[in-house]
Amino acid sequence: MPHPDLAPVASSVAALLHGVRDEHLDAPTPCPDYTVAEMLGHVHGLSQAFVAAAAKDLGPLTSTPPTERVQALPDDWRDSLPEHLHALGQAWRDPAAWTGMTAAGGVDLPGEVAGLVALDEIVVHGWDLARSTGQSFDPGTEAVAAVHEFLAQFRADGTPSDIFGPAVPVPDEAPLFDRAIGLAGRDPQWPGERIQTIPAATAASA
Question: Most buried in the list 6, 19, 36, 171, measured by CB within 10 Å?
């Protein structure tokens, strides 16, 4: 089975940055620990970490636990973050990235798992960012299916997670993306009124 392509999702997340205004930076996000600025700082750091994980370039970027405080958002984030997201998408197009062992967040794990974690991170945090700034975000059916399957397996035994909050119940008939977001510990209706999504290809070209 082919591995999911992270590049279109990374491009769609980068496209959201055009809609982030300075007044958004102190606003809350669906992840209660992060403001928009802190979420952007988190994505800035994780995108670099998962590029290193794909290349098996183990060191400080791959050894920082995800529970540690996020790095400060650099002043040049509007230029540097899209570059890091592009690099992330390209790094996981290399079949070698999905093989062997690597590390991320201070945890040793197979490359195949690391790639899915990277995908989950940008899909869920892309949704966080879109909701926080009043934008639309559709990562595409392939990415949503892969993230839902990953999270469903992760949540299967009901063990509490230090990474995700408690799963939010979502009806079985709800869209698959809503069900994935619920498994990630988010309320798909945050902050209340649903936002109409647009195709990923349209978002990526914005």
Answer: 6
Phi, psi of 122 (to 5 degrees): -75, -30
Vertex 8: Cα angle to 97 and 126 (nearest 5): 100
Rounded to whole angstroms, the Cα distance separating 105 from 173 reads: 34
Q: What is the CA radius of gyration of the chain?
A: 16
Is residue 30 a contact partner of residue 130, using CB atoms and an 8 Å limit?
A: no
Residue written as tokens 């109409």? 196
| Bridge partners for 101 per DSSP | 110
Residue 185 to residue 30: CA distance in whole angstroms? 9
For 178, the enclosing helix (H) or strand (E) is: helix 176-183
Angle (nearest 5°) at CA 19 between 17 and 21: 95
pLDDT for 157 equals: 64
Conformational region of residue 30, where left means phi above 0, alpha means psi within -120 to 50, and beta covers everything else: alpha
Q: What pTM value is reported for the model? A: 0.89
Residue 71 — pLDDT band, cuts 50, 70, 90? confident
User: What is the spatial distance between Cα 120 and Cα 144, in angstroms, rounded to a whole number?
Assistant: 9
